[in-house]
Amino acid sequence: MRVTQENIENLLIESIDKHILKALLEDLEEINNSLPLRTPNIFIEWQDWHNKYSVERTDPCPDYYGYYRLIQGGKYLGIEMDLETLDYVLCVLRDIFTND
After folding, report:
1. What is the mean pLDDT of each run of 10 residues along the chain (100 residues)?
2. Cα dihedral across residues 45, 67, 79, 23: positive or negative
């Protein structure tokens, strides 16, 4: 599910996390406004489904339900992240693309 200011209340996360996520969306908007022309915007996706694995697997099978990913132009950027890691990544992107 793509996270937006409009649908953030539908996420099954804690209220404090929604508050943090709203601030991260504002940072992401600033990052997107600073990207070079014709560069696709970056979006946050929240995984609202459980990963399914074959019963034949013997190794641990991670489930990324509730994790976040960044998407740009239909491609994933990086890996699944918790909210704290997402904050760090957006901080780095903000430092790279904005002129604060």
Report:
1. 95 95 96 94 96 81 94 96 97 88
2. positive
Distance of alpha carbon 77 from alpha carbon 75, whole angstroms: 6
Q: How far is CA 79 from CA 24, 51, 55, 57, 76, in A?
A: 17, 14, 24, 22, 8
Question: What is the residue extent of each domain of the chain?
Answer: 8-50+64-97
pTM: 0.89
Q: In the numeric block, which tokens belong to residue 64?
A: 């990324």
Q: Alpha-carbon torsion 80, 87, 96, 8, what sign?
A: positive
CB burial of 26-44 (b: ≥16 within 10 Å; e: otherwise) equals: eebeebbeeeeeeeeebbb
The predicted structure's pLDDT at residue 100: 60
Rg (CA), the chain: 15
Q: Count other C-beta atoms under 10 Å from residue 47's C-beta.
A: 15
